[in-house]
Amino acid sequence: MWSSSVTVLLLLICWHGCAGHPLVICFQEQSYDDVTVHGEECLVHQDCDGDNLRCVNQRCTDAAAQTAKSLQDVAIQTSQSLEKPHVEGSPAKAPPVPKTRDAETNTDTAAATKRVQISTKRAAKECERCRKFGDPCVEEGVECPEVPYTVCRMGQCHCREGYYHKEGRCMAELGEYVHDGQYCEPGTQFSNRRCTCRNDQFYDNNMRTCLKSALGINTSCTQQSQCSPYGAAYCPSVSPKRCTCHPYARYDEATELCVAKDGYEAYCERDGDCALANARCSTEKTCVCKPSYYYVNERCKAANGGECETAADCAFEEAVCQSPSVQSEDESVEPAEPKRCSCGKGHYYQSSGNRCLKEAEQYGDECSPLLGELGQCIEDQCQCDENEHHFKDGKCNMKIALDARCSKTSECFVDGDDQDNVECRNSACQCKFDYSPDVERQKCIRPSGKNSSDRPSALKVITLLLTSAAVLITGSALRDAYYG
């Protein structure tokens, strides 16, 4: 039952705009007393009374009964002569009632109104011109009409999960369903109604593009998957980004693949996965020697102080395996403590090189370099390079001149026998107190008649002050007596 009030609504038709357009919708507004129920005619969803009713094909239909999605047809009316709105005092006019709602044109001679139904089942490109990504929408959580793979969120058309916006349409990520290949990214393939990569390509991390494999080990890459054809290889996250074997793998030239290692540096998840004795699982998932052990001759051998059974268990030459409480190397003596690796008598353990060196008894003795990092073996003797270094405090030290920056006194150097008269003070090489540098500033000498700082001594200063005070007091007393 149509009410007597008439509402004229102009629609925005696709891409032309509504201004001056000959096509309009002319329909009578239903009164609140008239309701439309299931099966009755309707124009929009709001005409149907009921939470689950939707206007489908101009009939109120239960939405739950719809098992397949389809684009709804929109009824567009055209009018050759619009009726004037009802004026108070004039007789109400009966509303024009269309005889049919088919796609054919029907004319009511009383109202001279023409109703035309236009199907909106257009091609994909044509539909995109009707509505697009970001346009306003009404039904929250429902796909926006004529915009595939969208959803209405907060009054706007957005792409569904698994799809992304590009150039006005919602493109499908790799592996997502699409009805047409134009919704797949260029460079991918449309197969079985899904966007996929070719068999010789790999999925990018963003799941939108396909990547070609790298050309081999040590060639350029951008993603991990590009290096996977070459065995246990990966693409580093920092430059230079080239396919590289994992730490637990080695490159096999015969197969041109990265193959897993056995024993030392083999792949592991925990310490128990390492078959090598005295090994542990590192943070890089590789088997390495435990602390205080070195990998020597395919074994993890003990460093200085590590437990051992024989000297062969020690990781350095000239080593002995004995109990610390036993000084004799006689193995028949029962040790009171576990045996440990150490250097033999007369040798010194060098941790930086993991070796035993013969100890030097005095400077110049024939030995291996034991005079610190700057010591050199010159003609089979431990010596310092006198051009750049000097011997002091039992070590070879850099020669640092007066007033130059220093870190310790043994670095400061002056010519002659005045080595004890210089020190490192305030991070600079300076002469000790009571000494002053000579003209060439390479000797510290004791000046005659003054201290090393060329300043009067404290005693002289006090004496001078007392003398001056006495003179002032005496002069003041004489002046008072003379003028008094």
TrEMBL record:
Region forming the signal peptide: 1-20
Top-rank taxon: Eukaryota
InterPro entries tied to this protein: EB_dom (IPR006149)
Domain EB: residue ranges: 387-438
Signal found in the keyword field: yes
Pfam family, one: EB
Keyword vocabulary terms for this entry: Signal
Residue ranges of the region described as Disordered: 80-110
Protein name from the UniProt record: EB domain-containing protein
Species name: Anopheles coluzzii (African malaria mosquito)
